[in-house]
């Protein structure tokens, strides 16, 4: 069997997801890139724009909220690749609104996509990692799951839930050498953040001691570290990269 390591990244075509894919590819991993639906044109355009080697990338397409479709897609990828060494649960959405104005739909969409999906995506891969006696799972949470954020009761609840999930799963994976950690980015220069109202982004920037947004590559580097040989003694942790916005 090939020695090459395989990493599956959900939300792969997004701002942080793309940088994670880039750094894993640069470090010799094969990448299974998850996106919500099959779109050959978008996939090809992404590969070309990012100058990724298409031979090293397999796409899987399913909404992380669709349990059956995602399970089938993951099982298919596992059968084709033979193994998955690293899972990065990166797919996530925001539906910001003050709680008094939030709809049940906004609540459910965020909980379903960001938290309920942890079961769907992680379970088949975790079982394989137990069999392999090795694996790394890295969950992308958020500073706002740690400190809370006005307008994000749904998102903060889901992201905090991911941290609890990370710790519990770390306990279950440890004896089979499966390490489970979370990375908590602060406000990062991606469409999720730049889509916010300009006055809101400006007021947030003023609260960040380092005075700027994170760059996606800075987040990706922490993920790569946790996945690599030198990250093997860290489990159940959450690594924060938030420019000092929240210090624990
Ligand atoms: N703390 C206290 N009060 C606040 C507040 C805050 N942080 N933000 C707004 N308010 C108050 C306002 O002062 C205003 O009060 P008044 O009614 O007395 O004037 C009231 O709440 C309404 O504020 P808005 O005019 O902003 O209301 P809105 O309904 O137009 O928008 C909102 C509400 C959508 C939540 C908007 O405030 C917003 O977008 N906030 C930022 C949410 C945020 O940080 N999202 C992060 C997205 S990126 C991400 O999530 C990635 C990651 O992991 C970090």
Automatic annotation (TrEMBL):
Coiled-coil positions: none
Domain Ketoreductase: 5-186
Gene Ontology CC annotations of this record: cytoplasm
Leading EC class: oxidoreductase
Top-rank taxon: Bacteria
Gene Ontology terms: biological process: monocarboxylic acid metabolic process; poly-hydroxybutyrate biosynthetic process
Pfam families reported for this sequence: adh_short
UniProt cross-references to InterPro entries, sorted A to Z: Acetoacetyl-CoA_reductase (IPR011283), KR_dom (IPR057326), NAD(P)-bd_dom_sf (IPR036291), Sc_DH/Rdtase_CS (IPR020904), SDR (IPR050259), SDR_fam (IPR002347)
Family: Belongs to the short-chain dehydrogenases/reductases (SDR) family.
Protein name in UniProt: Acetoacetyl-CoA reductase
Encoding gene, per UniProt annotation: phbB
